[in-house]
Write a structure and sequence with these properties.
single chain; two-stranded antiparallel ribbon
């Protein structure tokens, strides 16, 4: 499989990101990621009674690890946005590479809790929250890039070859038209008009 070059014929990037719109969407994605992490922790600790990231005695909010987890989720979203921005400027098909990277990182985040010595329900709960975070960050940033990134217009091709000696002398192509139509009459001579001569016999109107 081959991908088109990341630059056009003029050496410009094939894609033109709008920094204002892109980073506004990136900040919004970071906020959503932080809220997803917080809501996931609350659901696990308060609704399901699964004490993730902190002992059960610390209540529904947990301890300082809850705040750290929320901030890390927002930071990951911003780092992912920066990665997507660089991919747009330097690689062909940037969203394809970005989806692969986000998918693999999300897989690592889902599998990592099972390497700890926590109870099995806590492992599954943490893995589920990480999975939702990865899907949300990837989908939101991909949608942001679709709105904030445009393709550069193609560079018009300029014909390369010797100049036409008749281009200036015959700007409207009349010479070439006459060469293509050799049998058609030309209208270089002024048309002749009939002349009037007084008639010499009755009934003659004099027009010849």
């Amino acid at each position: 499989m081959t991908y088109p070059a990341s630059t056009d014929g003029a050496g410009r990037p094939r894609f033109r990101p709008d920094p204002g719109r892109f980073w506004a969407g990136a900040v919004a994605t970071a906020i959503v990621a932080a809220l997803i992490a917080l809501v996931g922790i609350l659901i696990c600790r308060w609704t399901l009674n699964i004490p993730i990231l902190a002992p059960a005695g610390d209540g529904a909010w947990g301890d300082a690890h809850t705040g750290e987890y929320v901030l890390v989720a927002a930071l990951v979203a911003l780092v992912a946005a920066g990665l997507l921005y660089l991919l747009v400027l330097s690689t062909p098909q940037p969203t394809v590479f970005f989806r692969w990277i986000i998918g693999l990182v999300t897989l690592i985040a889902v599998v990592y809790p099972f390497s700890s010595g926590a109870p099995l329900d806590q492992k599954f709960a943490t893995a589920a929250v990480n999975l939702v975070l990865g899907i949300a960050i990837g989908s939101l940033l991909t949608a942001t890039s679709a709105r904030a990134i445009r393709r550069n217009p193609p560079v018009p091709s300029v014909p390369v070859g010797p100049p036409d000696p008749g281009a200036q002398a015959d700007p409207y192509g009349q010479r070439g038209y006459e060469q293509q139509q050799p049998n058609r009459p030309t209208y270089n001579e002024p048309p002749t008009r009939p002349t009037y001569t007084p008639g010499t016999r009755p009934g003659d109107d004099g027009w010849q």
